[in-house]
Amino acid sequence: MHATDNTASGSYTLPPEIQEFCEVARRIVRDELMPREQEWLNSPNHAYGMRELPAIRAVFNTEVAAHLEKIARDTGLFYLMVPEAYGGPGLGLLAQAAILEQLYYSPIMLPIANVPNILYECQGDQIDRFLKPVIEGTKVTAFAQTEPDAGSDPGGMMQTRAVRKGNGWVLNGTKMWISNAHECDFMMVQAVTDPDKRQRGGITMFLVDRQNPGLRVEVPGIRTWLSTIAKQHVVHFDDLYVPDEDVLGEVGKGFSLGQRWLTIHDRLLRGPYALGKMQRALDMSVDWAKQRVTFGKPLSERQAIQWHLVDMHIDIQALRSMTYEMAARADGGEDVRTEAALVKLCSSEWGARCVDHAIQVHGAMGESLDLPLTLFYRVLRHTQIGGGTSEIQRILIARKLLGK
Ligand SMILES: Cc1cc2nc3c(=O)[nH]c(=O)nc-3n(C[C@H](O)[C@H](O)[C@H](O)COP(=O)(O)OP(=O)(O)OC[C@H]3O[C@@H](n4cnc5c(N)ncnc54)[C@H](O)[C@@H]3O)c2cc1C
After folding, report:
1. CB atoms within 10 A of CB 22
2. pLDDT tens per residue, range 123-163
3. C-alpha 335: how far from its chain's center?
4. Which residues line ligand 1 (CB under 6 A)?
5. pLDDT tens digits, 196-210
6. What is the DSSP track for 339-392?
7. Which of 114, 228, 269, 319 has the smallest number of Cβ neighbours within 10 A?
8. Number of H helices, E strands in the chain
């Protein structure tokens, strides 16, 4: 395998301990994940986008799942994204990006604590009830923002309403496309608490227990091309009561909380998510082009094929430089909201086109479900929609260009 050495990319030479982390991640991918990829890809239960621990347990037997979890915990990679205050190494975004890029080289996700950073807003006993179990992997959460008529414009169009009652709130409404809604232990739900203010102080985030009698998840969910099992669901709130102590953050600040997560955690870290897959696709294509012979010569000697490889390489180099620069600037305290939109846009569009090149170089083999290429393509194409579409990222970038 040729997993990229990203430890010294441009002017971002990573400190030795991060380089070591990258090396450990590379080794685990090579020795533990890649040999199990066939089993993963052949399993009807493999589902991309699920939280890592449940995803592993859905495919592998208990022994293998426990083995992978142990490796993740023993090496410290499990806590890679966790701040020091909660027992993690407190790594900056640049370090996280570099290590995650290594892990995303394989379609199998090593179990790691992947905590939506809004959950770090938990206060008082919310920390023990919600945050810590998610860090430890004993609870799974889902994020419920999108609705049947509110996707790209959730702030303006959200209909789910929370009305004050006693020492709490009563929620009514419907969410749609909610990943993991059926399997989760609790949901982070956005609802309108002040219709006049909406996204400017009128949307609140609630922590809703999956067992709340007012919560109804439609099963089966909506099937997509990301997995054979339906992982996205329609969710109804019918006079669902949430006590004040289960408001996440402040009343009225739930929209900006969600945006903060989407901006940094989600958008910026789409960079390494795509880069690992893009690099893998390129490495596979180089290998294939060297060994596949047509008309008496290996494909690698054909200029048409070399150009596919070079185009992939260009996208990878450009995206890596961009991602690392934005991550370093975020670590330095800069407001990189627009830059994160740029990373999200480029990682999803360049990522999908990069894997598309790889599929073309592989010919029919590129379409084989025994290789990870079509899965990589689907998940990267998905990111042009999920978490804010490419058009929305362009709108955000244009606003900054035009000084709005
Ligand atoms: C697999 C999957 C998983 C998901 N998981 C979750 C989840 O866990 N939680 C959650 O809350 N949501 C989730 N979503 C929903 C996702 O975030 C939304 O689908 C996404 O934000 C786009 O919204 P929409 O589908 O309503 O598109 P629409 O808003 O209807 O947009 C349709 C098209 O019009 C474009 N468009 C819209 N407005 C403009 C404009 N002003 N100018 C130019 N073009 C515009 C869009 O970019 C898009 O191309 C998931 C979606 C999928 C497919």
Report:
1. 23
2. 999 999 999 999 999 999 999 999 999 999 999 999 999 99
3. 21
4. 143-146, 151-152, 177-179, 224, 226, 232, 382, 385-389, 391-392
5. 999 999 999 999 999
6. HHHHHHHHHHHHHHHHHHHHHHHHGGGGG-TTSSHHHHHHHHHHTTTTTS-HHH
7. 228
8. 14, 12
> From CA 335, how far away is CA 321, in angstroms rounded?
18
**DSSP bridge partners of 227:** 47
Q: Which two tokens stand for residue 313?
A: 């390489």
Structure-block tokens of residue 62: 């208990």
Work out the pLDDT band at 10, boundaries 50, 70, 90.
Answer: very low
Domains of the chain: 8-115 (1.10.540.10), 141-248 (2.40.110.10), 258-401 (1.20.140.10)
Q: Which of 48, 114, 141, 146 for a ligand 1 pocket mutation test, highest count of atoms within 8 Å of Cβ?
A: 146
Q: How far apart are CA 305 and CA 299, in angstroms?
A: 6
pLDDT of 326 over the 50 cut: yes
CA torsion through residues 66, 72, 74, 76, sign: negative
- CA-angle at 161, arms to 156 and 162, nearest 5°: 130
